[in-house]
Amino acid sequence: MKRSSFRQRIAWWGVDRALPGGTMVLDFLEMRARYLATQRPQLDSHTAWLTRAATIRSRVHRSLGLSKLAAYRQGLSAQKTGVLERTGYTIEKVIYETLPGLWVAAHVYLPAHLNIPAPAVLFVPGHWMENGKLEPDIQICCANLALRGFVVLVYDPIGQGERLGDWMEHGHLEPLLIGVSQAGLMVWESIRALDYLISRADVDKKRIGMTGASGGGLNTFYTSAVDERIAVSVPVCFVTTFYQMMTAERDRNWEDGVDLCNQVPEVMTYAEMSDICGLFAPQPLCIIGGLQDWMFPIDGTRTVYRQLQEIYRLYGAESNVKLVEVDAEHGYSQPMREAMYGWMMYWLQHLGDGSPSPERACELLPEPYPAALTYIAPPASTDLPILRQRAAYPHPNPGWCFAGTAPLSCGAAITQLARRLAAEVPPPELPDAATWPKQRAELLDRARALLGNMPEREPLLRDRTYNQVSYQGLFAERVVFESERGIEIPTMFLTPAEWQRYLPVVIYVDEWGKQVGLENGVIEALLQAGLAVLAVDVRGVGETAVSDFEASTNALMSDRPLFGQRVWDVLRAVDYLWRRIYISVQIDKGRVGCLGRGVGGLICLYAAALDERITATVLWETPLSYHQLLLERSSFPPSIYLFDALNQFDLPQLMATLAPRAVLIADPVDGERNPLEEAQCTALLQWPQHVFQQLRAKSKALQVRSATQEGTPPEAMAAWLKEQLNT
Fold it and tell me: Alpha-carbon distance 704 to 682, whole Å?
């Protein structure tokens, strides 16, 4: 297809205009989150909680992907690269490898007068991106803990500090396909940090605390739930309800469509934050929240705390859990730090009564980036001289741990890890005609599970016709049908004005919406071939356009992935066609095809696999394998990254479930949307080709048209559909 103009593409995306349906998808997701929160069971006994806790712990492990990473829990290859002498403490500079290619830069703060073995604290920075462990507030905190007699390990998280690459290192999609989340990678690095801490002779393995704010609070929250070596936990500026966390970020696109740290797969389906905190019970837990923290609202923090008190009460340990509210914005302010010092001292050193301990002045290392050049807050007008010298930073820093060339970037290492994990999944055996029915049923069950908890297949709730035109041999309607409660799907129904026979019909699903079908010539070609067309805007596309990143990652936390919701919309489009009985142009309900472009092709593939009423399917400009999406920079949107998909099947196996129904693969592409050569297609499609042959499907039932310079003409796809739907 001829490349569209930038103006056209902006129009397709819905960026250039207000859309009346633009709030629908996010409203629906919030409604789902509210519903899931009501499913939390009331606890009536300690035994009931222990049973529930075991299930939650198992599911948290799965959501994070920790079992996938366990094979890499080997030696850390730790190296000490330097020592810095400070007043009252020293800092050891350490590097170690948490996963293949993922090297961490860390500081170990050691009190000058160390009583061995000493209590220790693992401090995890939040999204202090540029300075990481050298951010002044973090240095002050770690130094004050050391001055109080704690060994402190603080490390640069992925994509921060010395490991700073680019912002996308906090938003890797490719591990999702193999069952690993961004939060899981973060937690894994804290688990490995604990491995390093307990390997030290100067650390008391039974007296280890953990704290961090924002992303560090998130890390503390999940790591404390899964690692029993943590004795005291203080998550800061993170704990609230999942619903309030999600709604606080509404229309902000989760840090500009990049940050995947908060959106843990499926977590809202089995737990509230209080339940995950409850996995730490009855160990001492202090939650610190900011009254002015808009990202993690304090009202939700209070709700979590009330629920958490119920869990601690089952252990008879109400005094072991505490909520500290500070009149501050998001961060790790001095009053928050002082509250943490007192809690750690009380529980790990038996000093004080747990109330705040005043912070002491200490000597800090210079930060590599001045505050004006960091992610934390907008600069002041007086910062203009610094802003105009951005290229001069970062300044070389005595606190850096890597000597000479830094290791492989975090992003590249994460992509390599995802590919390595995917390569370890054993390929399915080619079936024969006898074993295929059972294997096909299992594949379809897995596909349904991946797509999420779809509603009951009840009659359509409502459909409405807003406009109808019959002019010069064309019959056209603007129709909206309700796919499920709260979701209205805009469509265009177009057909040759034939009044004496039933016409085959094609459902058209485009990645950018139905309007594109009018502009690229596909709908016109289908009509000229004598086929009716139902062009559909699945939810979040076209007239109801929404940020794919925000909507899909919100849905990732629920039991309804956005991609699965969109497949449901196509299934309901089939339902609409089947119940369509008007005294007007009629369609042949036994001859329904679908044509999907880009992501729309994958949506049509899943819909055709699940609905036998779809007779013929065209996948246009669509990837042929999830392996092709294991890229550091994919050109496809987040919604197609179904969690754990590659551990269930790959796309060629799903294509095989359509046999012996007809499938045309037109202009297939890779994860960067580059055309695939014929040899690549042949290799990828060995599985479905084998199944089609086993089932003795008719000639060319599975057909591939590799992209030429101009691509497959719309007329060729229309002619193929006409042939398949008329035989």
Answer: 9
CATH 3.40.50.300 fits 50-403, yes or no: no
For residues 353, 354, 358, 361, the Cα torsion angle rounded to the nearest 10 degrees is: 120
Three-point CA angle 405, 409, 410, nearest 5°: 135
Gap between the Cα atoms of 387 and 372, Å rounded: 7
Q: Is it true that the peptide bond before 282 is cis, omega within 30 degrees of 0?
A: yes
pLDDT tens per residue across span 454-494? 998 887 778 898 888 888 888 888 999 999 999 999 999 99
How are strands ordered across the β-sheet holding 285-290? 79-86, 89-99, 102-111, 151-155, 118-123, 203-213, 232-236, 285-290, 321-326
pLDDT in tens, 408-431: 789 999 999 999 999 999 988 899
CA dihedral 325, 329, 330, 331 (to 10 degrees): -90
User: Mean pLDDT, the chain, as a whole number?
Assistant: 92
- In single-letter form, the type of residue at position 322 comes to K
What's the pLDDT tens digit per position in 300-315? 999 999 999 999 999 9
SS3 173: coil
Angular region, 316: left φ>0, alpha ψ -120 to 50, beta rest: left
**Considering only CA atoms, which of 620, 622, 607, 652 is closest in space to residue 716?**
620
Is the CB of residue 280 less than 8 Å from the CB of residue 316? no
pLDDT digits (tens, 9 = 90+) for 658-714: 999 999 999 999 999 999 988 899 999 999 999 998 887 677 789 999 866 678 899
> Mean pLDDT lowest for which of 31-45, 361-375, 396-410, 604-618?
396-410
Three-state secondary structure string covering 369-430: CCHHHCCCCCCCHHHHHHHCCHHHCCCCCCCCCCCCCCCCCHHHHHHHHHHHHHHCCCCCCC
Q: What is the rounded CA–CA span in Å between residue 484 and residue 204?
A: 56
Distances, alpha carbon 195 to alpha carbons 96, 124, 131, in Å: 11, 15, 24
> CA-to-CA distance for 338 and 327, rounded, in angstroms?
14
Task: Map residue 478 onto helix, strand or coil.
Answer: strand
Q: Does residue 19 carry a pLDDT above 70?
A: no
Question: CB atoms < 10 A from the CB of 356, how many?
Answer: 18
SS3 content of the chain, % helix, strand, coil (to 5): 40, 20, 40
The number of helix segments (H) and strand segments (E) in the chain equals 25, 18
The reply to whether omega before 379 is within 30° of 0 (cis) is: no
Q: Where in the chain is the domain with CATH 3.40.50.1820?
A: 50-403, 436-725
Looking at residue 348, the DSSP 8-state letter turns out to be I
Tell me the pLDDT tens digit for each residue of 393-413. 998 999 999 987 667 789 999
C-alpha to C-alpha distance for 133 and 153, rounded to whole angstroms: 10
Which structure tokens are listed for 41? Answer: 């069971």
Q: Which residues contact 366 (CB under 8 A, 6 or more apart)?
A: 134, 395, 397, 398
HSE (side-chain half, CA atoms, 13 Å) at 412:
8
Which CATH superfamily, name and number, covers 436-725? Alpha/Beta hydrolase fold, catalytic domain (3.40.50.1820)
Residue identified by tokens 């703060």 is: 109
Q: Tokens 């290619």: give the residue.
A: 101
Integer CA distances (angstroms), 368 to 105, 128, 132, 365, 378, in order: 15, 12, 9, 9, 18
691-to-430, 434, 595, 654, 658 alpha-carbon distances in Å: 8, 11, 22, 11, 10
**CA-closest candidate to residue 148, choices 338, 285, 353:** 338
d(CA 400, CA 411): 20
